[in-house]
Structure formats: structure tokens, C-alpha cells
Write a structure and sequence with these properties.
heterodimer, A: 312 residues, MetI-like fold, 14 helices, B: alpha+beta, D-Maltodextrin-Binding Protein, domain 2, five-stranded mixed beta sheet, 15 helices
């Protein structure tokens, strides 16, 4: 199969592009991490010579090409460098934050799929008109509510009023529930919208009438035939969904005071801490590549036609 | 008059000392809390990640509020009047031109790794802080003229400077020059940032740091060399302090209100009413140092003319800024220095809102109202830009209000938000009309560091002016009698010439829950937890 080496090559290109683009963008922004470390207007009195010394130590005074070359070479050995701001290595910061982010996005993904698929399937299946309308109006609502606001409302109700869960921190399973719901909402809404739309399309297809005419139950048609065909476009979304989730952590982790990759990213971008930003971006790109690969491999299982094409 | 008022407060605090209830800048404890109790954990919500915990390196409140508890200093500064008091040094002498400071250390103090706090440790600490360079912007600015430390005997050390450095005495009281064990400098600055080798002699020791999550410090057992300014001898009361990093202000205040935290820093103006009465207290203290101000680049555009700068100063209604954008806890500036800064001079009259006076100045300078209300002269608009970063949440709204106020006198203020790094870059390059910032420092020397033509020279003045002379003079003596007139003259020149246009004082507002007591401000308005306890 020619697909695998080609996909691997594509993956390498994607990783390289993510690495390069993030570097160039941060390099081109005015200011740098050495200046950010001096801290806003408060860093009054550092002399240009002292700032130059910090720049030299972190290699920030090299030319674009030299800096890029050095970083790329080190990155190939898994070394993204040391954060100018925290003094910690970039990989340690990112991997240290990863478990908490994985727990959050993992649960959010499950909730998003359950919520999105549930709403879409029930909303198209039910014959109670108002219920169907209600269910199918949830996804547009879910995408339009800012997750920042949703998070604060959830905290207000379930933590400050009912006191069921802590408002802050990332210790234990309880702490991940509210943030996961917050994060799952917009993502689940997208899944719900796409799935509902393609379900309705499928239900209008002529094969549905044929199956029904042959005497299959409505339930069987809905779940056995239409859903299976409708799932395909939704699965394609997984890459997008993952992106949504990772991007959503920036806000969600801050609102819920969790540590995690989103927090690390936001801080590092704000201070132009190139090593940390690059470590995050390359890691994210790696996940993307992996997920998309998995999706590609999943397609033929869901769609026999694709199996035939690949074999052909 | 002012000095006298201070003396009365000082006397009052002595009388109240027995009741363990200072009124002199220390946060008050709840009245019926009973006597302080040892033990327990204080859960403290802070607004931002400290990034790096070494107090010698990082100058943010988040980092210094942790670092202050871990390290002791040679001296301590009284938050009530700014006086320098003994701490690790029992006494000291300063030579005539403030270039040599001899400290006599108390015996018996040790770092938490067992090493003695002696002359050698002072030397290695100051050498280490100096070596940080721009990695320790505050420490290295305090040590700008540092030549070296001479070990006179095991408990006596002389610190030498190549230029008069009166400010060093106050600097020796800050956590930025807090002492670390000689072993600390065997680690890299980056390791110390993360707590590895962060070994002080303070009442608490570092336990753990999880980025964006929390910092934990625990009680140092057998601590017996606290500052005489503190309320009790011996160990700290608290067994453990957990600094929880809670960036979202509403969550921070809600967590305090719902009892998930015991105390929080950085209560936002909108949340302030939550914690008045009802068992909560709200300690407030303005920062010493340079207040939030518009520093003019006197070489740029319309700001080269002193009359224009003075008109801008008169056009600003400072009271309206604090009333509208902030709260009653924030005070309008009465000088370029905050009122909590030693040798602050009250120039409230000079800083009064006077739109008529502003108009007269602009008229005399030939600026006539243009078609859109903004004044013009020879086809040039009366306009300047201010650059700032969002280090303080209300910066943008304060500047927008100032913009509206100045529009009324026909001045067009353009507001330009930049990142921290970019602001610093533009500031160093001198590429700005107005610069908006504040600097926390409990010593008037911050004026020299900021405005002297031999230092940052943020107003881009020509060398050898009367301001330089006054700044040099205050730098050459630690004697308040001599230093005071020089520091006051410097403030007067800066305000009258409107090199800087002061607006309001940055103020720390904390929320303290019903269980927490004795959380106090030190002289730079940062946390002091030695006397804190939980009931």
C-alpha cells in the first residue's frame, strides 16, 4: 500500500511546518522573551548591556536563520530549549501540564460525542414535534454560548451555591467534571449539528423508503441504516473537534484555575517564550497527525465503498 | 504637619502593640478572633502564576508575595513611616557619601540547610544577585553601582559601591536582596526559579511549585530571628501556606465568599463591595514608588513645549478617574511618588483639575480650537500618543477616561496598547510620546533611576539640569534631614515641569475571610505572613 509512507511523509511535513511557522511568527513579533521577562513598565532600569547578556544566553541575539537552525536541530533531538520566563525546560513544562489537559479533553470528548450524537439522533427520531424542534435547537445554542460565560455560570451554581464541586484546582475526578462540561458544549454542538443534518439528508434518501417498504421498523432504519451513513461526515469532523477542544482549554483551564497545556500556551504566547510555544505547537500537530491517520484508517471500516476503492 | 501626624500614629501603634493589633499599615485582625493560634493551613488565592519563585530574580507581585516569606533581609522597613529597622543586621554604618555600608549581623541565624547567616553568606548573596544582571531586574538595579562585599569578620560585612547609593539601605530591606544560602548559588538561576536550591533563612521554607496551580510553603521550625517590626517572636503561626493560582477574578472572589479560600489578593474594583462587613475584611494599601502616570518624552512633537505638558496635567480630573474607573480605595496622585513612599511631597494643589488654566496655557502657546474641537497651530494638531501594556486591568479604561477629559481642553490623546515586551522595547528605544506605567519602590531613589539622565531618563531630558542635581543629591546621603529637601525638590521639578503627569496610586486590595487573621502588608505593599494565623 503506497498510502502509509506517503502519509508518514505528510506527517513530517506538517510537523515541520508547524515548527517553522510558529518560530517565524514569534520571531517577527516586536519585542522578545528577554524583554517580557523584565515585566511591563516595571522593568525600568535594566541596562541595554544586561538585556543583551540575557539575549545572548538564550540565543535570542542570533540571526533568524541561526536561531532557527539551532532550534530545529535541538528539536530533532527532543530538546525544545529552556523557557526564558520560568527557567524550566519547555518539554518539562508541556509534559508536566499534559496529564491534566488529557483528562479534561478526554472527558470532554466523551461528553461531546454523547451530547452531540444524542441530541441529533433523538431530535431526528422523535415524532413529538416540539421535542424534536427543541432538541435540534440545542446545537446552535451550544455553539453561540461563550464557554467563558458557561464556565462561570456552572461554577456559580454547582460550586458557589450548591457546593458540590470545588471551583478551582485540578485534583481528582470531581474537579474535572465542570470544566469538561464547559469544554464539551461547543464541541458537542458542532457534532450534533453536523450529525442531525446528515441524518435528515439520509432519511430523505430513496434507500430509506425501500427499506421501509420492505417492512423494516423505523428504529431499525434510523439506527441501522441512516445513522451508519450519516456518521461518516461526523467522523471526518474528529480532527476539527480535537482542534476545538485543545483551543478551548486556553479559556476553560483559566476559568477553572486548572493547570494544563492551555494555560502554558496562553502564558508563553503572551511572553513570546518561543521554546514553550514551539513545544506546544509541535505536540498539538503530532496529535492532529495521529488522529487524522486514525480517521483515515477508520473510514473503510465504516464505509464498504471506500474499502473497495482502496483495494482497487 | 504631616510628620507630626505620622508620629502620632507611630505612638498609637506602640500602645496597641500589646493588643497585637497594629494600625500602621498592617492588616487588621477580626476583633473577636481571640488570641492567635499556631498551626493550620492558609489557602490563599493569587491572581497570576509566579513563573519563577526566586525573589532575587522576578519582580512581579505573584513571585515576591511568595519569596518574601522564604528569605530574610539585612534590614526591615517599617510600613508606617518607611524607617529602616534592624533584622539580620543588628546595626550598620554608612560612610559620608553613601558608598560603603557596614552591617553587623546578629549571631545564631541559619539558613534552612543549616548554613550560618554570616558575612560570607551576605557576600555570596549580593554577588549572586549582581551576577543575575537583567535576569534580576530589581536586584540588579539596586546593585547598579555594586563593587563588592568585604568580609570584615565572620559577622561583619562591608558592601562597597562605585557611586553614592543611599537607596541601598532601603534595598537591603527588600526580598529582592533577601539572603540565600551559599549553596543556592551552586544551582543555576533557572533551578532556583523552580524552587531547587531556593534556600533562605526565612520563617517559611519552600515545599512545592506546580506551574499554574499552586505553590506550597511550610513553617521553618526553630525560627528565632524575626524582624522587630513583627508582632510575635519565634516560629510563624501557620504550618503551611497554599498559594492557589486563580486567574479569573470572579472565581477568586467567589471562592473566598464560599469558603474555598481563606484569603485572596487582587480584589477587582467590581468585586470590592462583596467583602465589606459580613465577617470579611478588605485590607487596602497603596503602593509606594512611582504612581500611574503619563511620562512625557520631552523631545517629541507637541510635548517639547512645557506649557502643553502642564496643560495636559491641568486637564486631567484625577478624582473623576478614581471615582469612575476605580473605587474609593484608590487615591488620586498627590505627587509623582505615592503617598506611602518615604519623603513623599504633597503636591495636590499643583495637581488639581483646572481646565481654565489648561486653556489659558494652550492659548498662550498659540494653540487654537480646530474644527473638530482639537486645537491646532500652523496646521499641526495638538495630539500625542500614549503607549501602555495591560499589566493593570483598569489601565485601558483609565486611559480612555483621560482621553475624554483631555478632549475637553482640545488635546487629542491617542491610546496604544502593546504587549509587555513591546512596551519595554519601545521604552528602551525612547520611541514614545507618553509612557503609562507605575513602579513599586519604597524609596525616593526610584525617581533617579527613572528620570536621571544618567539612568533611564524616561523624559529624555538634556544632561546637567536642576533635576539631575537634586536626584544626585538625594542619592548621596541616607540622612533624612539632608535627603528630604533634595527628594522634595526632585518631585516638585518633575510635577511642575510636567515631565511626568501623575494620575492615581496603584493600590493593593485583598479579601480576607472570617477564618484568616494577621495577613499584613510589608513596606512595599506585598504580603507578610509571619503573623498570619487561621482560626
Amino acid at each position: 500500500m503506497t498510502g502509509v509512507p506517503r502519509r508518514l511523509a505528510q506527517a513530517v511535513v506538517v510537523l515541520w511546518a508547524a515548527f517553522t511557522l510558529s518560530f517565524v511568527i514569534l520571531y517577527l513579533l516586536p519585542g522578545d522573551a528577554a524583554l517580557a521577562r523584565l515585566g511591563g513598565g516595571e522593568g525600568v532600569t535594566a541596562t541595554p548591556a544586561e538585556i543583551a547578556a540575557v539575549r545572548a544566553e538564550y540565543g535570542l541575539d542570533d540571526s533568524l536563520v541561526v536561531q532557527y537552525g539551532k532550534r530545529l536541530l535541538a528539536a530533532l533531538h527532543g530538546d525544545f530549549g529552556t523557557s526564558v520566563i520560568t527557567g524550566d525546560t519547555a518539554t518539562h513544562m508541556v509534559f508536566g501540564a499534559l496529564p491534566s489537559t488529557l483528562a479534561l479533553t478526554g472527558l470532554a470528548l466523551v461528553l461531546a460525542v454523547v451530547f452531540g450524537a444524542g441530541v441529533a439522533v433523538l431530535g431526528t427520531y422523535t415524532r413529538v414535534r416540539w421535542l424534536g424542534n427543541l432538541l435540534l435547537s440545542l446545537p446552535p445554542l451550544g455553539t453561540s454560548l461563550p464557554s467563558f460565560w458557561v464556565g462561570l455560570v456552572l461554577i456559580q451554581v454547582f460550586s458557589f451555591q450548591l457546593r458540590w464541586v470545588p471551583a478551582i484546582g485540578s485534583d481528582g475526578f470531581v474537579s474535572v467534571v465542570l470544566p469538561a462540561i464547559t469544554l464539551a458544549l461547543p464541541t458537542g454542538a458542532v457534532i450534533g449539528q453536523v450529525l442531525a443534518k446528515s441524518l435528515r439528508t439520509q432519511l430523505g434518501e430513496s434507500y430509506v423508503e425501500i427499506v421501509l417498504a420492505k417492512g423494516a421498523s423505523r428504529r431499525r432504519v434510523h439506527f441501522g441504516h441512516a445513522l451508519r451513513n450519516a456518521a461518516l461526515p461526523a467522523v471526518t469532523l474528529v480532527g476539527v473537534v480535537l482542534g476545538n477542544l485543545l483551543a478551548g482549554t486556553v479559556v476553560t483551564e483559566a476559568v477553572f484555575s486548572r493547570d494544563g497545556v492551555g494555560r502554558v500556551t496562553a502564558a508563553a504566547v503572551g511572553t513570546q517564550d518561543i521554546p514553550v510555544v514551539q513545544a506546544v505547537i509541535v505536540l498539538s500537530a503530532f496529535f492532529f497527525v495521529l488522529i487524522n491517520l486514525a480517521v483515515d484508517l477508520l473510514y473503510p471500516l465504516l464505509d464498504p465503498r471506500l474499502r473497495a476503492v482502496t483495494r482497487g | 504637619m504631616f510628620t507630626r501626624a505620622r508620629r502620632v500614629v507611630g505612638l498609637g501603634s506602640v500602645l496597641l502593640f500589646a493588643a497585637a493589633c497594629g494600625t500602621t499599615g498592617a492588616a487588621t485582625t477580626a476583633v473577636d478572633a481571640g488570641p492567635p493560634r499556631s498551626g493550620g493551613t492558609l489557602r490563599l488565592g493569587i491572581s497570576s502564576n509566579p513563573d519563577c519563585l526566586d525573589p532575587q530574580q522576578v519582580g512581579t507581585n505573584a513571585a515576591l508575595n511568595v519569596g518574601r516569606q522564604l528569605v530574610d533581609s539585612l534590614t526591615d522597613q517599617d510600613p508606617a513611616d518607611g524607617a529602616i529597622k534592624p533584622w539580620l543586621a543588628e546595626k550598620w554604618e554608612v560612610n559620608a557619601d553613601s558608598t560603603a555600608f557596614t552591617f553587623h549581623l546578629r549571631a545564631g541565624a541559619t539558613f534552612s540547610d543549616g548554613a550560618p547567616v554570616d558575612a560570607n553568606a551576605v557576600k555570596s548573596s549580593l554577588d549572586g544577585a549582581k551576577a543575575l544582571g537583567a535576569k534580576g531586574p530589581l536586584a540588579s538595579s539596586y546593585l547598579a553601582a555594586y563593587k563588592g562585599s568585604e568580609i570584615v569578620d565572620p559577622l561583619t560585612v562591608r558592601v562597597d559601591f562605585s557611586a553614592p547609593s543611599a537607596q541601598f539601605l532601603q534595598a537591603s530591606s527588600t526580598m529582592s536582596l533577601g539572603l540565600l544560602s551559599p549553596a543556592a548559588y551552586k544551582k543555576t538561576p533557572e533551578q532556583r526559579c523552580q524552587g531547587d536550591g531556593l534556600i533562605g533563612s526565612g520563617p517559611f521554607v519552600f515545599e512545592s511549585f506546580k506551574q499554574n496551580q499552586q505553590v506550597v510553603i511550610t513553617k521553618r521550625k526553630g525560627y528565632a530571628w524575626g524582624s522587630p517590626l513583627w508582632q510575635h517572636p519565634g516560629d510563624a503561626y501557620l504550618d503551611r501556606v497554599e498559594y492557589r493560582i486563580v486567574p479569573e477574578p470572579g472565581v477568586r472572589s467567589g471562592s473566598l465568599a464560599s469558603g474555598q479560600l481563606d484569603a485572596i489578593t487582587d480584589v477587582q474594583p467590581v468585586d470590592e463591595p462583596q467583602f465589606t462587613g459580613n465577617g470579611f475584611t478588605e485590607p487596602v494599601r497603596a503602593n509606594p514608588g512611582i504612581v500611574f502616570n503619563l511620562t512625557a518624552n520631552t523631545t517629541r512633537g507637541v510635548l517639547t513645549d512645557a506649557r502643553v505638558r502642564q496643560a495636559v496635567s491641568k486637564g486631567i480630573n484625577r478624582q473623576e478617574v478614581t471615582d469612575t474607573v476605580l473605587t474609593k480605595n484608590y487615591k488620586p496622585a498627590t505627587s509623582v511618588l505615592g503617598a506611602a513612599t518615604p519623603l513623599h511631597l504633597d503636591l495636590a494643589k499643583e495637581l488639581a483639575h483646572d481646565p481654565a488654566g489648561a486653556a489659558a496655557l494652550l492659548d498662550s502657546a498659540g494653540w487654537r480650537p480646530g474644527p473638530d474641537g482639537i486645537r491646532v497651530r500652523d496646521g499641526q494638531r495638538l495630539s500625542a500618543a500614549v503607549i501602555f501594556s495591560a499589566v493593570f486591568n483598569q489601565n485601558q479604561s483609565a486611559l480612555e477616561l483621560i482621553q475624554q477629559q483631555l478632549r475637553k481642553i482640545g488635546f487629542d490623546l491617542r491610546i496604544e496598547l502593546h504587549t509587555n515586551a513591546e512596551t519595554t522595547q519601545l521604552q528602551i528605544a525612547g520611541d514614545y510620546d507618553f509612557l503609562w506605567y507605575n513602579v513599586t519602590r519604597a524609596d525616593p531613589d526610584i525617581l533617579r533611576q527613572t528620570f536621571s539622565t544618567k539612568a533611564s531618563n524616561r523624559s529624555k531630558l538634556a544632561q546637567g539640569g536642576p533635576l539631575d542635581a537634586a536626584l544626585d543629591k538625594q542619592s548621596a546621603t541616607v540622612d533624612p534631614a539632608e535627603r528630604k529637601p533634595a527628594a522634595e525638590e526632585a518631585q516638585r521639578i518633575i510635577v511642575e515641569q510636567a515631565y511626568s503627569i501623575p494620575v492615581f496610586e496603584l493600590t493593593q486590595v485583598w479579601g480576607i475571610g472570617p477564618k484568616a487573621h494577621g495577613v499584613a502588608f510589608e513596606a512595599s505593599s506585598r504580603l507578610r505572613l509571619f503573623d498570619a494565623w487561621v482560626s
